Amino acid sequence: MKMQKEDFAAILKAMNGLPVTIRLLDPPLHEFLPNLGDLRVEVAELKHRGASSEELAVKEELLANVRTLSEANPMLGLRGCRLGITRPDIYQMQVRAIFEAACDVVEEGYEPVVEVMIPLVGIDKELALLKESTEKVIHQVFEERGIRIGYKIGTMIELPRAALTADEIAKHAEFFSFGTNDLTQTTFGFSRDDAEGKFIPEYVELGILEKNPFEVLDTEGVGKLIDMAVKLSRQVRPDIKLGVCGEHGGEPKSIKFCHQVGLTYVSCSPFRVPLARLAAAQAVVEEEREVFIDK
């Protein structure tokens, strides 16, 4: 927790007075564990050289745990909010680190603005449960430190079901961030890592796809889900903060679409920020020109 707390404090200081959205742990647990193949080799070598039963037992137990947690397709596995629900101590640790860091920087004269993002929500009850446990830890920290700061709790919309049930999820969320990279994966059934170099270029060449959907947002499919989620969520919570994160947030055509459906911000890689600002400004100017012409 100490390392995370230090990292969060540094970020909050650097962004003094500006909102900082911190996404809770998302990757599957096996990404933090030793490689399965390497462990198998180690166990075989230990047996070959006649290692002690104690040494072998420790390594075999680790191997068994890694094998249990290994997943061929992590988008369908134990990650995101599923991890936070089944192993609540992980998210509780992260939330405590975030708000202890926030209290530390308040005492140093800074003004942190914290937004906690719960990833991979697909069912409203997932967010309701995790919001409750998150706020419990937050208020424990506030009581211990005698400090209160404002905060928001929201989620990333990266599953089709989340977009389709956005009105239910919005009851528990103060903001949505559309994770368009993963939403594209889960909508198409494409793996970004596998598809780009294998068949997407051929699909574009054959005219099946107009553009690589991981580079330019698929407005006909993924875009319809986003548009639906925007409308549904604002029916329940008119002031909900809505944005997009991922590489689409720095692509001009995608930014124009985000503006048209009513998103309030885009997030992108640092090197894409100038292009994103220009594209956002052009989208506004173009809209105002169309309104002027219509009048």
TrEMBL record:
Record-linked PROSITE patterns: PEP_ENZYMES_2
Keywords per UniProt: Kinase, Pyruvate, Transferase
GO MF terms held by the record: kinase activity; pyruvate, phosphate dikinase activity
Pfam families: PEP-utilizers_C
Domain of life of the organism encoding this protein: Bacteria
InterPro entries cross-referenced by the UniProt entry: PEP_util_C, PEP_util_CS, Pyruvate_phosphate_dikinase, Pyrv/PenolPyrv_kinase-like_dom, Pyrv_kinase-like_dom_sf
Residue ranges of domain PEP-utilising enzyme C-terminal in the record: 3-283
Matching PANTHER family: PHOSPHOENOLPYRUVATE DIKINASE-RELATED (PTHR22931), PYRUVATE, PHOSPHATE DIKINASE 1, CHLOROPLASTIC (PTHR22931:SF9)
Protein name: Pyruvate, phosphate dikinase
